[in-house]
Amino acid sequence: MTVWERLRPYSMVAPAIIVFAMFFIYPIFYMMYLSLFDWNFVSPTKTFVGIQNFVDLLSEPDFRQVLSNTTLYTVLTVTLTTGLSLFMAIWLNRSGFFYGLVQGAIFSPHIISLVSISLLWSWLMDPEYGLLNWVIGLFGFGKLEWLSHPSTSLISLVIVAVWKGLGYNTLVFIAGLQSIPQDIYEAASLDRSRPWTTFTRLILPMLSPTIFFLVIINLIGSFQVFETIAIMTQGGPVNSTNTLVYYIYEAGFRFFKIGYASAAGVILLFIVGILTIVYFRLLSSRVHYR
């Protein structure tokens, strides 16, 4: 084998590797570098402060609340989206015009811009003229301050996230259900297996690769939420909906504390990386591909 034949595979993947390194690997290391400095994004000089940005962040009450908000938002969004889409997929996993129509209807939010969805839900959740308060008023309930009260604002954002992600997760689950051999269902029927037993002992283990994939995707997406917060709440009221990515944006591009924002970005990278590794370590052995 000549030298060129050995190098040819690497030359073919080199453009993709170069692009990946320029736009993904280099920014991560540069963010880590900036997290050690005090810089206002305008001045040509940077002041080295070491780990002081991290110390200031972790001792700041607002940042600890941001971590709490992000954790609660992620847990609720991932749990509700995955659970609801699984049961929707089981219901819609059949042929017929009606079921195809419902599949298309619940998938449509996934292809709509998140900015448009945020503006739509801002109107729906308006305390005075919103459609949601009008509907619950028909049942005798009082008006809710969906986005303007700390007790309901974060839950309101979770509702928007679940509504947008439900269709995509449902169709992925349907694809997973349709990949299960029919012989398994026939064997369960011959054994007179109860529906709940069939679901827990057969369907869930066969769907474990799909669940594993969707939980990872939803987990990372929830930690990166930005558009809905920037448009609907701007982190308020009283910091109740501020999450890590929006906090990084404010610190960097509103207050021009680039080192501070970079330190928060490193913390976000560390949290997502640790959660992903732990998730793979704990649950990858429970995934059944056959």
Which spans have pLDDT < 50 for at least 5 consecutive residues?
none
What value does the average pLDDT take? Answer: 89
Give me the side-by-side strand order of the main sheet: 1-2
Q: Given the structure, what is the number of helices? A: 12
Please state the CA-atom Rg, rounded to the nearest Å. 24 Å
CATH architecture: Orthogonal Bundle
Distance between the first and last residues' Cα: 38 Å
Provide the β-strand percentage band. Answer: under 5%
According to CATH, the fold-level topology is: MetI-like fold
Order of helices and strands: HEEHHHHHHHHHHH
Shape: globular
CATH class: Mainly Alpha
User: What structural class is derived from the secondary structure elements?
Assistant: mainly alpha
Keywords: Cell membrane, Membrane, Transmembrane, Transmembrane helix, Transport
Transmembrane segments: 12-33, 72-92, 104-124, 154-177, 198-220, 258-280
Pfam family, one: BPD_transp_1
InterPro entries: ABC_transporter_permease, MetI-like, MetI-like_sf
